[in-house]
Write a structure and sequence with these properties.
This protein is mainly α and 313 residues long. It is built from 19 helices and no strands. The two termini are 21 Å apart.
Length: 313
């Protein structure tokens, strides 16, 4: 369930004109930017972008980049992009920085096969290189194998499962992931080729046999990028709602809020399932997500995130 509150009727031309007016004069009228863009769905935002360019022969995204600053600018910029283009940008940020490879895992594991294919197409259009080309050039070893398998996967999306296979592969994962005695290649093969329903059956079988979840105590301070990526993939396949709740929780409780992670979850899930993530957050922390966000953020950035959460400051 989405948290975004958008009108059923709107005028792209009127919105474009109001945004142009907000950019003119001394200083930007950030409240107008928040009021309009924070209450428009993905189709309405693209209509506004087209109307703005037709009227003013100017790219709205580039204009906003020059008008807005800091975390607020980054959040609005990522919000106004189409989802596939946004994820392409997020993947490229990871590749250029050489860190946070779990974000690529997150995108690849949560999206449907069609959505992931759209991201790969958007990446190619934007950067004139394929995702897999850049991933391969900037990673190595088991991390490269896992990431390449995930970003190029096109999985079966039905409900059929093979119980015997789940039992066999639960033990393969136990040896490779928990005991660290088995083949990482086999663990990678399982995670990059099986359907989500088959993987969940495997994880459930693991819990039945071993009395604990496969991710329990999987990470420690010595964990490398590959182990973190492995953990992220399993968490995302098993229950992406709980995964996102933990990302938000860690972002907020961190000494100095992790704005990148907080922005990523709120912006990417506001039109999908942010309401459910918020409910899980409240059950886990006894604090409403919007209250936690309001406490840990400030200014226009705070107002914008709260708007996407369906709450006004």
């Amino acid at each position: 369930m989405a948290t975004l509150i958008a009108p059923s009727n709107h005028s792209p031309q009127a919105d474009a004109e109001a945004l142009r007016k907000a950019f003119e004069g001394w200083g930007t009228d950030e409240n107008t930017v928040i009021t309009i863009l924070g209450h428009r769905n993905v189709h309405q935002r693209q209509q506004i972008r087209r109307a703005y360019e037709e009227i003013y022969q100017e790219d709205l995204v580039k204009r906003m980049e020059s008008e807005l600053k800091g975390d607020f600018e980054k959040a609005v910029y990522r919000w106004i992009l189409e989802p596939a283009d946004r994820d392409a940008v997020l993947i490229n940020v990871v590749i250029k920085s050489g860190k946070n490879f779990h974000v690529i895992v997150e995108i690849s594991s949560v999206l449907s096969p069609e959505e992931l294919f759209a991201v790969r197409r958007a990446y190619l259009h934007r950067y004139k290189r394929s995702v897999e080309e850049d991933v391969a050039a900037h990673t190595s070893g088991h991390l490269r194998q896992l990431l390449l398998g995930l970003v190029t996967s096109f999985r079966y999306v039905g409900d059929e499962i093979n119980a015997k296979l789940a039992q066999t592969e639960a033990e393969i994962l136990h040896e490779a992931v928990k005991e660290k005695k088995g083949s990482h290649e086999e663990a990678i093969r399982i995670l990059t080729t099986r359907s989500k329903t088959q993987l969940i059956a495997t994880f459930n079988r693991y819990r039945e046999v071993h009395g604990t979840s496969i991710t329990k105590q999987l990470l420690d301070e010595k964990s490398d990028d590959f182990q973190t990526a492995l953990y992220t993939a399993i968490r995302c396949f098993n229950d992406h709602i709980k995964y996102y709740e933990k990302v938000v929780r860690n972002a907020i409780k961190k000494v100095g809020t992790d704005e990148d992670a907080l922005t990523r979850v709120i912006v990417s899930r506001a039109e999908k399932d942010l309401k459910i993530i918020s409910e899980v957050y409240y059950k886990r922390n006894s604090v409403h997500l919007e209250q936690a966000v309001a406490k840990e953020t400030s200014g226009d950035y705070k107002k914008f995130l709260l708007t996407l959460l369906g709450k006004e400051d």
